[in-house]
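One thing: mind reviewing this one?
=====
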Amino acid sequence: MAVDDPEQARESTRPAKSEGWKIPLPLLLFLTTTLVAAAITIPIAVLSDNGATATVNDIVSLLRENYGKVRQVSDKITTELSTVYEIIQVNAANQAVRAVTDQMVTGVPVDFYSKDALLFAYEESIIRSNFIFSAGFFRADNLDKILVSTPYGPGVYCMANSTDPTGKTCQALAITAVTPAGAVAKSLAPFVGYSPPSTATGPNAVWDQTPIFIYEGGTTWLGIFGLAWCQWQGLALGEAAAGDPVGRHLIITKFERISILLAGIQTTPNTAIAVWLRNAGSLIATNQAASVLDPSSVAQNPNAGQSFLPTTYPNAFISSASRFLFAAHGGTPQVLPNSTSNTFDGSGGKLFVESRRFDGGAGLDLTIMVVIPESDLLGAIKAARKKVIGTSIGIAFAMLGLATATSFLVTLPLRRLTKVMQQATNMDFSALTGGFLAGRPQISELAIMQRTFETMLRRFASAIESNKKLQMGRMGVTSSLTSATPNSTTPLKG
């Protein structure tokens, strides 16, 4: 079959040129948008992770800071105790006190209530520290006693019967006022029924081994803890002689003061701090609102309530942490190492538990425990991290969706336009009437290109149509001319 168009014939016989590797436009758009999404989401994720790690480091610093604050509390306790040690020595050396204690005769009762100078000296000493509840002196036979308390507080006055010393009379003592000149306003009331325990017998000061609570009225109980120091007649504190001491100087402290110190520490919301006697295991202070008084002990002895053990205290963090701590280190408070640092799995999550042994001197052996729930430290961080990661994933999916949508918005119109072009190369202009070019792409550049191509295609189709008509006209003229030409073989007529 002959080819009418020589140029087309040459194109059809020309070897196809290699166009090399080409990247599809949809893939290019998808990869571009994905790269943009990664450029946004990956830095966000990295920054959030780094920020969370930095925050964890900050929290570790906070842990150390909290433990440091507990050290500050131990320093404050040391300061309070130093004041107690100083005051008891000052009282023992006070001339008004020595004038009474150095003149005591075995078996002869002493009426401490009548000694205004002695009462004034004790009253002046206890107002130096709000850690001190009362100060006084007990004879060695434990019969004659005097404890001067804070104003209107329940002090103690006991005097042995001269004919029957065991039939001593004890009353509650109240110092209502003192004057700079030494005058003392005082009163006695029925005895409240308590006597601070003391085990002091030698020349060294000794703290009580068990704290007690005394009833103050209503629903109020006061936790007290005593320091006793024996004195031999005519000698200074710390010196001993043959025979028994003349008696014991006492300082009674309010150990709830330690709870006030602990509550003043700024910690995370649920951090729990507890202080207990190492040997007895009795709590003497916490930073919690609940008292360390065990109500069940009051029913057994209304005048000498006992403290909770740390394992039975009504705070889940303190009770569970102390149980874990004892179980991990020998089973009892007495055998705890001087310093521990543990992490335990509690019912509410991990607990960071730190304990320190504190030696207050004179047999005062304490343990300070700090419990910090993991939720206080890491809960907010984990929530923030999850939120940022979730946001990053959301952005990534949104960008992938955008990439897909963009690919469709760009490539579908181009594919449709490419198909029309391929048809046009085969002289097929049905796209002009078939509606293929009726819709316009949403992208303005593609819309302009389609409109321009449609205009070009219409003009091209019109030109071809005009050319066909012209060719048809020429063919008709040629045909008529041919039919009108005389046959050369026809003879001419003359």
The longest strand covers residues 220-231. The mean pLDDT is 78.
